[in-house]
Amino acid sequence: MTTTTSQNRREPPADVIRYSAFSADPAGGNPAGVVLDAQGLSDARMLDIAAEVGFSETAFLIERPDRVEVRFFSPLAEVSFCGHATIASAVARAERYGAGTTRYDTRAGIVEVSTERGDDGMWRAALTSVPPTTSALACADLDTLLGMLGWNADDLDPMLPPQIGNAGARHPIIAAASHGRLAVLDYDMPGLARLMAARDWTTINLVWRESESVFHARNPFPPGGVVEDPATGAAAAALGGYLRAGHHVNTPATLTVHQGTEMGRPSILTVDIPTDPTTGIRVSGTAVPIPAP
């Protein structure tokens, strides 16, 4: 018996529930584990639970008098912020405690989260990210990324130059010139994992702009132990900040981001971009419980 296992046996049991975010169908969207009461759980135990759950992220919540402390773990490591697990856990809380607004205290900062139940009975949650930032993507890193993806410079949309977006987690944003280019995803997973670890990137946000307000996205996610993430709320928030900072959209704006289609897990993320550059980006969607196997 290892030391970690011995320590874990002395910790309180964890009640793990499973929800799929950004979908009205548990077979779609992005599944997340949720632990609504993580009081007393060590970092090692939370990582173990995330690995046992096997989803790209699991959210661990601790209720405080004026906020909810939240930690996010992939099966391999802790991440500073996760959008889809935020949406999933917010709906899970609302089903137990009722609709409302609360503050998530995350490693990335305070994120306001609200929930409501529609006339159709579906729960919907919205997060408002920390104020986003954008920064340059080094030419050498871009060349390496394109090489790993099997892309070249002609595959890029010249109207949306590559940059790093950050709305709680760092994501290179790479815009494809065509939907056909985005539809093919075949990359060097171990190599990209090493590069992302060195650069502190959470996912690679590959996007194609269908129209002024409609985007399609795919997110390679080696740090989460998966080839691709079917819905990435943090990356959607980073995209909103990137579009606002680069004046690529007239604000205020509401965008629809389609993700997960190629994986057979279609997801819809709504992104509201306010005009004020000091404010966060609002990302919203539905979430539903995943039936026990």
Question: What do you see in this structure?
Answer:
The chain is an alpha+beta fold and 293 residues long. The protein folds into two domains: 3-128, Diaminopimelate Epimerase, Chain A, domain 1, CATH 3.10.310; 133-288, Diaminopimelate Epimerase, Chain A, domain 1 (Roll). 25% of the residues lie in helices and 35% in strands. The chain is built from seven helices and 17 strands. It has helices at 3-9, 43-53, 83-97, 139-149, 179-183, 189-199, 233-245, and strands spanning 16-21, 30-35, 57-63, 68-73, 78-79, 100-106, 109-117, 123-128, 133-136, 163-166, 170-175, 205-209, 214-221, 226-229, 253-259, 267-273, 282-289. An eight-stranded mixed β-barrel has the order 1-2-3-4-6-7-8-17. Strand 15 and strand 16 (267-273) form a beta hairpin. The longest helix has 15 residues, at 83-97. The relative contact order is 0.17.
Topology at a glance:
Blueprint: H1 3-9, E1 16-21, E2 30-35, H2 43-53, E3 57-63, E4 68-73, E5 78-79, H3 83-97, E6 100-106, E7 109-117, E8 123-128, E9 133-136, H4 139-149, E10 163-166, E11 170-175, H5 179-183, H6 189-199, E12 205-209, E13 214-221, E14 226-229, H7 233-245, E15 253-259, E16 267-273, E17 282-289
Parallel strand pairs: 2-3, 4-6, 11-12, 13-15
Antiparallel strand pairs: 1-2, 1-17, 3-4, 4-5, 6-7, 7-8, 8-17, 9-10, 10-11, 12-13, 13-14, 15-16, 16-17
Helix pairs in contact: 3-7
